[in-house]
Every structure is written in C-alpha cells, then in structure tokens.
Amino acid sequence: MPLRMWAGIGTVCVLLGAWFAGYRLTPLAAAKVNDGPSVHEFGVVSYPWGRVLLLNTPKGSRTALVSRSVILWRNPANSVVGPERTGPVHTVGWMSYTGDGGRQQATVVAVKVSDPAIAYIAVGPSGSRQRKTVELNKPLIFSWNRMIGLNHLRPIALSKTGRELYRYGYPLNTSVFDTSLLQWYPVPAAN
Fold this sequence. Notes:
- By secondary structure, the protein is an alpha+beta fold.
- It has helices spanning about 5-20, 25-35, 150-155; strands at about 40-45, 50-55, 60-70, 70-80, 90-100, 105-115, 120-125, 130-135, 140-145, 155-160, 165-170, 185.
C-alpha cells in the first residue's frame, strides 16, 4: 500500500481514538459527553487553558470544566451543587479545580437570587473577596484563577445597608457534614 493510504488510515484511527476518549471540537460538545445532548449553557468563564461552563440539564444545574488539548476539548471534571433549590437565594454552579501539576487552577461560583431584599452577594477569601450587585433571577458568576476551598469562600447575601441576610454553608452548631445540608441559611437579625 502507498504511504499516503497508511497516513490516512493512521489519521482516522487517531481521530476515532480521540473521539472515543471524549475529545470534541468545541467546549460545549465536550461537556455534552458527560451531561447528555439536552444541555444549555447559561454562563462561561474562560481561562488560558480552558473554560468552566455553567449548564442547565434535564437533571438540574451542572458545572463542567473543559480543557483544551491542541485543537480539541475534553471534559475532565464536573460538579453538581446538590438538589435543586427554589429559595430566595441558591447556588446554581460551583467548581474548584487544580490540574496538570497545578498549572491549571480555577474556582467558579454562580448564585441566583429571587428575593428583592437581597442587594449584593459577596464571595471569596479575604484579599480577593468579590461583591456583586444582584439582578433578580439572573446568575451572578464569581471566578478566580486559583483553587479555593469552599470553607474559604464564605458566600453571603447582603441587604442594601450591608446587613447579612443569608449565608451559604452548613447549619450552625452541627458536627455532621452532609452535602444535602449545604445551602443558604437565613442570618438572624441582631437584637
């Protein structure tokens, strides 16, 4: 057989191998490998090495990390925030990731608010805390180019006067860390 034919067969084999390994031509197509075809993107955060996609799926909100490999994309990590919540404030996306020996790092948090008393959401560790103005029923997306653990993010919902209305985390005075309890809790008003 001529060399050209062998090169063609080799190229087809490499492309098929990449396809079966989950590589795709676009970030959204790579995310659909793990989350199915009925996925709709509602937010994206770009990094030099990849993207974090915030997705609506038939099973609820998902966060997919996709990384670029030459011209193809793959989806090495997904996260699910937990059961869908319909309260006045709820987290609709979260990813804290490090990969490639620490060269790829990302933290993304997405929050949706339906309570008009909430004016701001603040998230992040001291020194890089972010505060954003709420647009009702639209996701607020916070991002950092490093991995930050949930215990350092300390998300809170604030009124126009800066009073804490809700905090994200586990119930106070508990020693049980059940992820179904990880949610937004009202902060009692000071006397």
